[in-house]
């Protein structure tokens, strides 16, 4: 492993939902539930869109659903109201969602040995509140939510903490996480519980959960 992880300026950057907490599907269901009263065709289109667009801010998802799927004029106040409804639905569920297998163990082993960061599309203040409540903040050098978008967030992280992109690894469960890594020149490991439904290109190192993360990192060339 360990050439990469032993580099003096190496760093790992984790997504949150679906990587640290088993909460990605929970959030997709909460999104979809807000449109349960709509006709089947629209509900199916919404679910299909949500299945493709993990790792994006909720405002972006609501704006797309309202404008492109439901054909509505989108006002900022409407998006804010939908975001508030969504937060109310998921807040308590997220606080009790189980950790992804191997996540806490990995964080415990590597905390203090190299810098670990959290980078999520969840609003920053909400993300930090959840991380504190779940007693996870102690593992991370920084907890970074939206805004900005993930690509910009990663760029800012690399610049602020002076980590070389070639020795930084993003661990994520969505194509947007992969795009974030590619857009910044960092390495990437994908997390996907069902490899047959992987959103990543075939050449991406992919694991079902974080129990095999060290092995996946060991396979990345230094």
TrEMBL record:
PANTHER family per record: PHOSPHOGLYCOLATE PHOSPHATASE
Annotated catalysed reactions: 2-phosphoglycolate + H2O = glycolate + phosphate
InterPro entries to which the protein is assigned, alphabetical: HAD-like_hydrolase_sf, HAD-like_sf, HAD_sf, PGP-like_dom2
GO biological process: DNA repair
Name of the protein in question: phosphoglycolate phosphatase
Similarity field: Belongs to the HAD-like hydrolase superfamily. CbbY/CbbZ/Gph/YieH family.
Molecular functions per Gene Ontology: phosphoglycolate phosphatase activity
EC class (word): hydrolase
Pathway: Organic acid metabolism; glycolate biosynthesis; glycolate from 2-phosphoglycolate: step 1/1
Enzyme Commission no: 3.1.3.18
Gene Ontology cellular component list: cytosol
């Amino acid at each position: 492993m360990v050439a990469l992880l032993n580099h003096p300026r190496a760093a790992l950057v984790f997504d949150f939902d679906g990587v640290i907490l088993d909460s990605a599907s929970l959030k997709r269901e909460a999104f979809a539930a807000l449109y349960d009263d709509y006709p089947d065709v629209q509900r199916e289109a919404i679910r299909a869109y949500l299945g493709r667009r993990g790792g994006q801010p909720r405002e972006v998802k609501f704006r797309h659903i309202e404008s492109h799927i439901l054909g509505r004029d989108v006002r900022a106040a409407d998006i804010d109201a939908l975001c508030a409804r969504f937060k109310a639905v998921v807040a308590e569920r997220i606080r009790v969602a189980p950790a992804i297998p191997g996540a806490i163990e990995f964080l415990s082993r590597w905390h203090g040995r190299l810098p670990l960061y959290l980078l999520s599309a969840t609003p920053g203040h909400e993300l930090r509140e959840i991380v504190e409540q779940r007693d996870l903040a102690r593992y991370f050098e920084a907890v970074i939510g939206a805004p900005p978008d993930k690509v910009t967030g990663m760029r800012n992280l690399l610049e602020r903490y002076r980590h070389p992109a070639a020795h930084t690894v993003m661990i994520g469960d969505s194509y947007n996480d992969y795009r974030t890594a590619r857009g910044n020149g960092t390495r990437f490991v994908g997390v996907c519980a069902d490899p047959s439904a992987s959103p990543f290109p075939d050449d991406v190192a992919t694991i079902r959960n974080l129990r095999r993360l060290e092995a996946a990192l060991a396979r990345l060339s230094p």
